[in-house]
Design a protein that fits this description.
single chain; alpha+beta; Phosphatase 2c, domain 1; Globin-like; 4 domains; 21 helices; disordered N terminus; disordered C terminus; binds calcium ion
Length: 632
């Protein structure tokens, strides 16, 4: 009934996943009618697939029978309500199907330029336009509804106990409320319908990368499924990819996919040589690997991932590589610096390869350089994302700790109101756009006295300089800009090498410890001491983060875009540092306040004790090989 649409290319794919035994997803790919849909069933033993298949059949029949005779919007609404009634009816008949239901996300093409998107539940529709992925549907989950009403914050939503509980589905009741929107399609647009088995196990960025590749929808659908499986494949996964006319592929992209990728691969030995010379094997991340394994795993997988990315005009493989590398190291308590160094080595080795290509073909070298810069930017973003995850985990631990302490506090001193450390340990203090809280009047004398004591204990000029700076920043509760100015003064015109930079960080740490010791040994009331340590921690972390940012910035004279991302990463790193210090501080206070045996406050020791532990498990990388799982 609908004319063929030569401009459109569509493909749907579904997979049971790596964990589930049955596939409870269902889909419609009906090019003749212009109807596409994904259903994600739920319910007891085997009822989920009954629900999703029933809904699929009803919707398909309904639309086939009435297309052209009904207003399309009313027709979709009625079709989904008919499906809900049918699923609900079946659920009433058999006890083992009680409570079954299904989501639905449906796309109905009105003509070559317009489509209706209808949905119920948390299966989603996304539109990729101009390389950007936009979510067209809002999940019908309890948490999403609470969020829309501003009843909870996005941070609370992420950890909410009901985050996957649907607020609407087909089958719970005979009728349902359907959200329907109309969209315009332009040439090059790609529309994606999917179940939560995709977006629950793949990052939005990776989905965007794959959907934005120049491959045909069939290949993209396969790659998306593969992506979800790589992410754990914890659920059934279903995708329908619809392309509104292939986007014109620039000639340069075509060239990169052929000559560029071949040229890159041909020079992999050059890359290894440069990486070897730059000391990959000596990096702490490779401590458990032989030099040959270090090259194979760290450099080899990067080269391979980049090759596949060039070939497919995506960046998803390098993204996965960087995420794995960062997780493998940071999740086990690894420090930031070695990771930073590895990224720098990869950057350097890329430069050597590009220089090598340039000797033969300057034009191609330029193209490869642009592509590689993009890949390195993606590495920075992926690592930044991992740091962000850690930040959220630390924040969750902080909240838990705070809640436990609050409970203990109430049990201990019911109603006496004397809770010296009550505060709001929620996200606001993590926002870097917020200036630090000014210290109360009782804090200044504590900090002044600590400075006098610390200076009186001697030390070199660098230490004294930092004692003074830290004291000033802590007293003034300086805004980020002032901290940056201080960092720039400290950083000065140093050479970018370990010997020039490391002493500044060492001195900063010594100054912080000296001041904390002095505060701890002083006679001020505990509440004033804690407030003073907090001001100091904030000043010290701000300064360290700012300086680290300057180092990273100066060490990365790459593209503007790259520097921008590096700055963002530095900001994230600063946040992680702050939060870690905060957790340490709270834990220390918890122990101080509630352990009657704890006499003198060994503040700095306590802070050191709860700091990030060193990785101890061998085979960090061996067990989690980065980039191995490249395309197929
Ligand atoms: Ca699912």
């Amino acid at each position: 009934m609908t004319a063929a649409r030569p401009a459109l290319r569509i493909h749907g794919a579904t997979h049971v996943g790596s964990v589930r035994e049955a596939n409870e997803d269902a889909m419609i790919v009906d090019e003749q009618v212009g109807l596409f849909a994904v259903f994600d069933g739920m319910g007891g033993a085997m009822a989920g697939d009954v629900a999703s298949q029933k809904a699929r059949d009803v919707v398909k029949e309904y639309v086939r029978a009435r297309r052209g005779q009904m207003d399309p919007r009313a027709m979709l609404d009625a079709a989904l309500n008919a499906a809900s009634a049918a699923v609900h009816g079946e659920a009433q008949v058999r006890r083992d199907r009680r409570g079954m239901g299904t989501t639905a996300v449906v796309c109905l093409l009105l003509d070559d330029r317009r489509a209706l998107i209808a949905h119920v539940g948390d299966s989603r529709a996304y539109l990729l336009r101009g390389g950007r992925l936009n979510q067209l549907t809002r999940d019908h989950t309890v948490v999403a509804e609470l969020l829309a009403q501003n009843a909870i914050t996005p941070e609370e939503a992420e950890v909410h106990a009901y985050r996957s509980v649907l607020s609407r589905n087909l089958g719970a009741k005979p009728d349902t409320r359907v959200d329907i929107t109309e969209i315009e399609l332009t040439r090059g647009d790609r529309l994606l319908l999917c179940s939560d088995g995709l977006y629950g196990f793949a990052s939005t960025e990776a989905v965007q990368q794959l959907l934005g590749s120049t491959d045909a929808p069939e290949q993209v659908a396969r790659d998306l499924i593969e992506l979800a499986l790589r992410g754990g494949g914890g659920d059934n996964v279903t995708v329908v990819v619809l392309e509104a006319g292939a986007a014109a592929v620039p000639r340069t992209t075509q060239l990169m996919r052929t000559s560029g990728s071949v040229s890159w691969w041909a020079r992999r030995e050059r890359f290894f040589e440069a990486a070897r010379a730059a000391g990959v094997a000596q990096n702490p991340i490779c401590a458990v690997l032989s030099p040959a394994e270090a090259i194979e795993i760290v450099a080899g997988n990067f080269v391979e991932a980049l090759f596949h990315d060039l070939e497919k005009a995506t960046t998803v493989n390098v993204w996965t590589y960087a995420e794995n590398l960062a997780h493998g190291w940071l999740d086990r308590g690894g420090a930031w610096a070695p990771l930073r160094l590895i990224l720098d080595i990869l950057h350097h080795a890329c430069g050597q390869v590009v220089a090598d290509v340039r000797r033969d073909d300057a034009d191609l070298a330029l193209l490869i350089e642009a592509a590689v810069t993009r890949e390195l930017t993606v590495c920075e973003m992926a690592v930044g994302g991992v740091l962000g995850e850690q930040l959220r985990a630390v924040d969750a631990a902080l909240l838990k700790l705070y809640a436990e302490r609050q409970v203990a506090s109430e049990a201990r001193a019911p109603g006496d109101g004397a809770r010296p450390f009550v505060e709001q340990p929620t996200m606001p203090f993590l926002r870097n756009d917020r200036a630090p809280e000014p210290a109360g009047p009782e804090v200044r004398p504590v900090l002044d006295a600590a400075l006098r004591v610390a200076v009186g204990r001697g030390g070199d000029a660098a230490l004294h300089d930092l004692l003074t700076r830290l004291h000033r920043l802590a007293v003034d509760a300086s805004p980020p800009a002032a901290v940056t100015v201080q960092a720039r003064e400290l950083f000065g015109v140093r050479q970018l090498e370990e010997r020039a930079i490391a002493p500044v960080f060492d001195a900063l740490d010594r100054a912080r410890r000296a001041l904390v010791d002095a505060i701890s040994a002083g006679t001020a009331p505990p509440s004033a001491k804690v407030a003073a340590v907090r001001q100091l921690a904030s000043a010290s972390h701000g300064l360290a983060a700012s300086m680290a940012g300057l180092v990273v910035e100066a060490a990365q004279p790459g593209a503007h875009k790259l520097r921008e991302v590096v700055r963002e990463t530095a900001a994230l790193r600063a946040k992680v540092g702050k939060t870690e210090a905060r957790v340490a501080e709270l834990e220390r206070r918890f122990a101080t306040v509630y352990d009657p045996l704890a006499g003198k406050i060994a503040m700095d020791q306590a802070i050191a004790d709860v700091g990030p532990s060193r990785p101890s498990a061998p085979g960090i990388l061996a067990r989690r090989r980065p980039g191995r799982e490249t395309q197929r």
